DNA sequence: TTCGTTTTTGTGTGCGCAAACATTATCTTT
DNA sequence: AAAGATAATGTTTGCGCACACAAAAACGAA
């Protein structure tokens, strides 16, 4: 492969013996072109490894792309607040370019609000969509409409089996369960009972959480840690006081040695119960750098957090869409983020680095 | 503050009643200008909150910036190999822009080679320099020369007290020692002796490593883990077989329960000794995702690694320089990376994510 | 005043590309 | 074979800026 650089459309045109417009037509698949010209242009393109100058490209283009981000209301939950902040970062990152990024917030606890907002998104005729498909069923219907309008979309946080996004950004849930198990295990000095807690805010996707549990259980099984018994409990839309009562019952009845909470919000809810009861010997592992979670890590109530990095997920999602639309750069179909282990000693380094 | 957008130089010129060239002179502080014109232009600039269009700016500029990266030879060490790969990534990231990034490799074990290469860098008259200042003394002399030529530089990996780079990129060494201690401690089932190993390839900077040890010791002290005794050993330029012999002596004599190795290469050297001796009950914590280290994590010989992310460090360093030169964007003076904890269960997620 | 200097301001071109616009070649149809 | 249609190709402009170049003021000495 020969090394050419700073090859311009003009150069390609010259090499192929055609005009710049013909090259442009090949590059953008627009207009008709003779087979002969096409071949010659392609040849020159491949020979030189032509890469368009992105700056000249965006400068020359008049078209403004519209990107819609459909995510839960950031005010309802700190986790989604961080997602939203990632989107804001992306907006300022790309404001120089020919893109206009608009956010659409839906109610995390209300699927009809998701439907309403998804309609609104469609009515705006965006060129690309980023979304967190919390509600599977409703999301699928939305995907169909996007497909019908051939609007590319990127999924993050939650994957959906039959969807065909240009990219999914998230984590390996199964493996994250294993990491949770690994870390919890290091904090268990002696055998006993462990609980996996699924604390939902709304009737969410079971898949999302059961994958984590699967990984969690498999870790103990694969390492032949048979003297630990894993119990699991679900709390659905449970009021805080009720949750507190039920959890205390479980803790004492089951003589729990450790708890793994599969949701970010569940972590500090659980920590709060443990803390208020003055219990000191229960190991606790949860998810995400929420304000409240951070507090309990400092207080040694939460031992480890697994960081899902919602900020970065959302940011990357927008970046992929922009690159796809502006530069026709196809993103990887699946991006699984590192399973970051947060402890009392390294948490500050995560909060300060600002690279999240 | 009124909201204007897409304000061009032309608009500013019109508002100030001058020509675009005058505005250009104000913006770039070049050429002489009358006080009156200056005031009027400044007024318009502030009123509109003018922001230059970066794309048009780089497209229009003819000047090519030269950036030099002065780093250890990647062939000598996998750690520095990863640094170099980060630089390569940066090169392809910025190849579209008016920058030319050139790498200069020096011999990790030979300070004269550093001097020679730093001279070569200067002779190229670069507009910016990225460097890993392995050799303190020599680096300081280099800084003086850079300062004399007013060439901005970014430091990474190793910080140097009196240097005045536009940015330093690295980690909090003290805190990283604490994280190492924290993780090692979780793997110590019973009290006993622990060793801190400093395995140098060359006479490097003691500061770099002793900061880690300080953090390591402080963790045990602050948590009143008095029943652990911490010993420290230095290996300087030690041949592998000799290292093996000496380490075995120490392990048996001191009845070591755990080992913390402060250098990336030291980790797998130590692991190799432990592994070959068939010792199973020593906890081991080290640094970085080197090929050999990864292998020993899978084999459970190394329990945890702290990732310094050399690839990302170097990449970011170049990006900061480019932004500084091309867009006059001043980077943060200090960027301390997250102290990533790598374990057997999450290591794959780090290797696969490709975001490093 | 006049001409040469210096200071200050203005005009024009090109960066690489997208896209509107303009032209030429190639068919059809009668 | 001429006229119209259509397919294929070519020319030009402008995006916002940097910068070379050109021009006009302002100043100064004779």
Explain this structure to me?
In chain A, 49% of the residues lie in helices and 19% in strands. In chain A, strand 3, helix 7 (136-148) and strand 4 (153-156) form a beta-alpha-beta unit. Chain A folds into three domains: 9-51, no CATH class; 65-171 and 311-338, Response regulator (Rossmann fold); 173-307, Response regulator (Rossmann fold, 3-Layer(aba) Sandwich), CATH 3.40.50.2300. The first copy, chain A, has helices at 9-16, 20-28, 35-48, 54-60, 78-94, 111-123, 136-148, 173-186, 206-222, 240-254, 264-276, 291-298, 310-327, 347-353, and strands at residues 65-72, 99-106, 128-131, 153-156, 167-170, 192-200, 228-236, 256-261, 283-287, 304-307, 334-336, 340-342. The longest helix of chain A is centred in the last third of the chain and has 18 residues, at 310-327. Chain A contains 14 helices and twelve strands. Chain A is of the alpha/beta class. At the A-B interface, helix 4, helix 8 and helix 14 of A face helix 4, helix 8 and helix 14 of B. The structure holds a DNA duplex (30 and 30 nucleotides).
Secondary structure blueprint with pairings:
Two copies of one chain form a homodimer.
Chain A: H1 9-16, H2 20-28, H3 35-48, H4 54-60, E1 65-72, H5 78-94, E2 99-106, H6 111-123, E3 128-131, H7 136-148, E4 153-156, E5 167-170, H8 173-186, E6 192-200, H9 206-222, E7 228-236, H10 240-254, E8 256-261, H11 264-276, E9 283-287, H12 291-298, E10 304-307, H13 310-327, E11 334-336, E12 340-342, H14 347-353
Parallel strand pairs in A: 1-2, 1-3, 3-4, 4-5, 5-11, 6-7, 6-8, 8-9, 9-10
Antiparallel strand pairs in A: 10-12
Helix pairs in contact in A: 1-2, 1-3, 5-13, 6-7, 8-9, 10-11
The structure holds a DNA duplex (30 and 30 nucleotides).
